[in-house]
Amino acid sequence: MRIISGKYRGIIIPSPKESIVKPTLDRVKENIFNIMQFRMEKSRCLDLFCGSGALGIECLSRNAEFVDFVDNNKQNIRELEKFLDKIKAQNFSLHNLDFYDALKLFKDENKKFDIIFLDPPFDSDLAQVAIQKIFKFDLLNDNGIIVFEHSLDKINSYQSKVIDSRIYGKIKVDFISK
Questions:
Q1: Which of 95, 117, 109, 161 is nearest to 138 (CA)?
Q2: How far apart, in Å, are the Cα atoms of 85 and each of 1, 90, 107?
């Protein structure tokens, strides 16, 4: 995996060791960020189920104001911390928490996000719960977007507005707003 654009362009992001991380393919990531490019600068972002942190790192590279990274795997967070230190990244926070605990923490801190990346394990229903809690806890800014990557064969029902969907082989990306 590599950083597509911005100040860290071309740097290789290491995959976490001893983890079942399903990294976002470079071409999918590139298309997501082409769609989101005008929303990126000065945005507050959340990379939920971050794994290697590739989506959040891309945000930092493209001048996001701040990125919160969340993963329940301690090793993923440690590797991500080493990498962010190596590239001297700033304006981020790492959270080694279950997604629900992290969302509750953000609610308690009155945090809101412009962009939330949701890339949970494809064989889980975690995204449905996460989307429900994001809206229940009012964590998305009024013009904010949830970028949800999932397998094409997964049926999803949202109580929110899908403003765009893209298909990349067996992967589907939904762009969800309030």
A1: 109
A2: 18, 9, 27
